[in-house]
């Protein structure tokens, strides 16, 4: 990194060649010759630009001499290109016509080079200033939930995971999130933290989103798509901008009054002379988080007789048969969804032995009393987030621009993995050096992270056990229930006597002892118990470059590129297992790609543009591989037809490679042989949860069960092939259509299946709860398919009003195979071939984690200019029911459908260079969850004032 910085410093100091420049000046007006402020002016084909002032005027020093072309773009108006020659370069006049439907956007994510969004050969979405201003969403990142095909899983108010095209995940490592070209993921944990450490809202220029396989150009992990967030260039967007937001959430929540939140953002950019520019950003949010407070009895396959079955069909599952009892005073095995320490399959339950002295409790499972999330975390749900950025930009001859940037993110949040985990003070620094020209870029960056967290569920269990062992608690419960002949609730109260109460000094001391002690260390005075804290202070170093060879090759547009990446893991063994010598693992990856495209003009109105791309990538622990892509777009006037065949792959996250839970604890196991050995899976085999259930109900023999023990195999990358066709068109400048169909096939799918590992290695341990639950990562033999169709429409109904809507239908299906590759039969004896993954007879055989609604749609009515000052948007979002499978303790459940109404009204105050916006999401305050065990999301009501381009 030092060498790279020194290189740039030398380059800047050594540059002494003068460059011819044109000093441009002009004005931008509407069709009625009224000046337009804030219009973006760019010299076409360069990175040079500016914006118009309050009088509509602009000045600009362009690289090179006239003639050249400037492009003007503004919210709600057609983009316009104007030729600049010797006669008008000091008096450029641009008149913009209103365009209710914006269709002439340019994107770079699809092909790594600028192209019209309608002519992109793969599906691509773009959100820019217009959408951010019109959206009722609280932030630009939140506006993604209105984009067709996007599923958002909200972990915390500041941490939301983006999911596309199935297999939704709280920590989505199949989706690549880039911020100014930098990977957003946590180097060790292996997934992006949403916008926790993203760009300040005021500095977001645009967000481009590609649904579907994108590895051909972007390498590992762009399996389901990628998102590219770009910040504003200080040469183009100058001045001081300030945004103030305030509002309330957690309205009408039981036991809680409405909670205020506040948000302040400041951006300052200044150009010094003709070559140098500086940009500074800062944003801080403070408020109360969405609260995970679902206290209903947990729906999980760990329950006895969880599935309703048909005995006549061999015990075939027909539906969910477990009848939940949400009252802990009458339910022996009450296990609240967001109550911790009472988990029936993670240290919170006791099964009375078959020879127990009192018949009513023989073989009876009872759960102990747990603690709520607010009890354990103890911060009343308070949440904060800081984001900052400083970047220096310098223009070099030949329309090159060098930049150095620092990006910082800091905050607290809760994420859901196998357990709910609290990050009290996450910090991340990213440093980037970049050199960009018209035909190339060179980029180097590093991610330096300090992430420490502790498991809420494991901490609650530890607090309970430090007070009283589960065995002693059950004994006291049993005595009260039998001898005193009292109810379940009264028996609980008896066993709970002198229990550590939340908020007391003793409770806090015990919680802090576990939460502040790493899970590799034992606590003195707690009978050898280990802490519940882990850390990921890992680093990432990335170097990449790209060159456009078109001017050299000429016969086609050809780009080449490559990247080198190094992970330096630093978890101290708390999150990822150490090597046998006690040192940390490192991971090296490299890749290279080439893409060629050629636009063929068939006639004056018909063009065809085929594109071929090929990439090779290698991870040091896995076999390397190629990911090709072939696509084409045919344009017939305003009608654009596209088709593509794309491949992609995903390298397992570091934890999926190496992870091993602490001795005796439940947790996740990596797929490499070294992880299996460390988890003692050879001496004490583990068995699929579904096989153990079949054994318990005598569907299979002990010999058959033992023959199905987990066997470590070669771990490899996860792969996907996607076929897609699509259509885009704008009809009579009133109706815009974007529709597509895709079919994807996964191979070597990586999923952490639930296994039971018996303490002694004997299957009899299952009857006495003497086992631990493991989530073992492995390549599945199954064939997985996802089919989807999406239609998006925008219609101008007149007077500036736009009616928009989109609908998405996605189905995941599976051909289920055993470890030997044979098709598995359901319990009725029928082979499971291309069946929906949500069907009970498929679910009965194990989890597949599709976690995606089959149907969802959005509707909105918007007008950014009801008057010259007033704009408004009204949106409705609906998501259908979804079969959801999550983690060790979260459960298996049909999540109900949900809908929200969102709205905003904005008013411009030109004399103050400001916009006042009043808005709200989930206006009707109907609480819903996007994933089982996650926080319930209610209304969020806000007022914001944005002062833009002051000074």
UniProtKB/TrEMBL annotation:
Subcellular location: Cell outer membrane
UniProt topology in membrane: Multi-pass membrane protein
Top-rank lineage group of the source organism: Bacteria
Keyword Protease among UniProt keywords: yes
Domain (TonB-dependent receptor-like beta-barrel) ranges: 380-923
The entry's keywords: Carboxypeptidase, Cell outer membrane, Hydrolase, Membrane, Protease, Receptor, Signal, TonB box, Transmembrane, Transmembrane beta strand, Transport
One of the GO BP terms on file: siderophore transmembrane transport
Chief subcellular location: membrane
Family: Belongs to the TonB-dependent receptor family.
Protein name (database record): Carboxypeptidase-like regulatory domain-containing protein
